[in-house]
């Protein structure tokens, strides 16, 4: 675990490494950004460097403190996460007690808080003075999907470390380098904001099969209404899945976008690269406006599913829309 293992997030890494290098570490940081962008990995890398005996801009990985950290034996690192829907005041009080007991007078103590936006008002108030005046050298690393959702009183007492969605090309290179199937990687990097989230998608049971269904549906949806409904019925409706339909529609959106990429000569941007021959033969069967209409219909179906419309009804309406949109050629 080090900053070198984190893909992208150069700005976040620069903020943290400069603080280490200049020995100007703040008492509290707010790691804010979408799920899967590497916030937790960066927090762990920063914590490891804070404990490292070499005191450089990254952990050395060789000293006793680094080895203890890597084996989960760092006693001065604490974790706190929501208990149910919120982080409660009793959790904060327990955290304060734990920190006051540990390593009396010996170096820093660090705690990583997941879901900082879920602090109750009472818990946040309990934290305020502790953030500013801890009993001993303490560094707080607060993690959140949305910094604006964190209570202003907490936000104003932390240094923001922003995390942004990682570029698909960077994630693709890293994931293929890890040995994940390239065909799955090409899709996953467009469905998630970071490497961790992409890995979860790739490793989902049935993800490869869903990709195959999308390809089949993409081909059938434009001209074979009955065949498309059979494909959906067999793949989705009989499975009883509630999450798969939304993911399927997101993947289908990429399929229609590939047609526009091909028309524009951007073959390097195509997601379903193994279907290039089919795309080459069919991309011009509709105009750009026609493919945009397909994408808009896909987004509308996804919206209906999120609004708790029965997936089968949403898909049927989607396919009807595609048939009615044949005039956009």
Automatic annotation (TrEMBL):
Q: Name one GO biological process term.
A: DNA-templated DNA replication
- UniProt entry keywords in alphabetical sequence: Nucleotidyltransferase, Transferase
Top enzyme category: transferase
Q: Which domain of life is it from?
A: Bacteria
User: Any idea of its EC number?
Assistant: 2.7.7.7
Q: Is this entry keyworded Translocase? A: no
Q: Which InterPro entries match?
A: DNA_pol_HolB (IPR004622), DNA_Rep/Repair_Clamp_Loader (IPR050238), P-loop_NTPase (IPR027417)
Name of protein: DNA polymerase III subunit delta
* Gene from which the chain derives: holB
MF (Gene Ontology): 3'-5' exonuclease activity; DNA-directed DNA polymerase activity
* The keyword Metal-binding appears for this protein: no
Task: Give the organism, scientific name.
Answer: Paenibacillus roseus
Q: Which PANTHER family match?
A: DNA POLYMERASE III SUBUNIT DELTA, REPLICATION FACTOR C / DNA POLYMERASE III GAMMA-TAU SUBUNIT
